[in-house]
């Protein structure tokens, strides 16, 4: 059975980047990626994102982790927010 991608989450990251008036290369550079294709992959086909990049994108887009990942209200993200971004 083929894996399904969460399009809601993917759209959310792209929409936040567009609202921030940033290009994919700009966000890639801001979160510390050397290759824009890696960011494009995260935005287009993400199955998992290193928490380090999630924290950086939240700073850039001025949003919460829940907003970035389009999580339902009340979702438990305590295990995500407690992680040290430098460890992931």
Q: Mean pLDDT score, rounded?
A: 75
What amount of the residues lies in strands?
under 5%
> What is the CA-based Rg, rounded?
13 Å
Q: Segments where pLDDT lies below 50 for 5+ residues?
A: 1-10, 82-88
Helix-strand category: mainly alpha
Order of helices and strands: HHHHHH
- Number of E-state strands: 0
Shape: globular
Tell me the number of helical segments per DSSP (H or I, 4 or more residues long).
Answer: 6
Portion of residues within helices: 55-70%
Please give the alpha-carbon distance between the first and last residues.
29 Å
Largest sheet: none
Describe the model.
With 88 residues, the protein is an all-alpha fold. It is built from 6 helices and no strands. The termini are far apart. The protein has helices at residues 7-19, 24-30, 36-45, 51-61, 65-68, 78-81.
Structure at a glance:
The protein has helices at residues 7-19, 24-30, 36-45, 51-61, 65-68, 78-81.
List keywords for this structure.
88 residues; globular; mainly alpha; 6 helices; disordered C terminus; single chain; disordered N terminus
Topology, pairings included?
Blueprint: H1 7-19, H2 24-30, H3 36-45, H4 51-61, H5 65-68, H6 78-81
Helix pairs in contact: 1-3, 2-3
């Amino acid at each position: 059975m083929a894996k399904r991608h969460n399009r809601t989450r993917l759209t959310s990251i792209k929409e936040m980047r567009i609202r921030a008036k940033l290009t994919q290369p700009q966000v890639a550079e801001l979160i510390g990626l050397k290759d824009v294709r890696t960011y494009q992959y995260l935005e287009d086909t993400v199955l998992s994102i290193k928490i380090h990049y999630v924290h950086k994108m939240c700073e850039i887009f001025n949003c919460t982790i829940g907003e970035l990942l389009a999580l339902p209200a009340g979702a438990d993200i305590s295990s995500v927010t407690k992680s040290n971004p430098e460890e992931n």
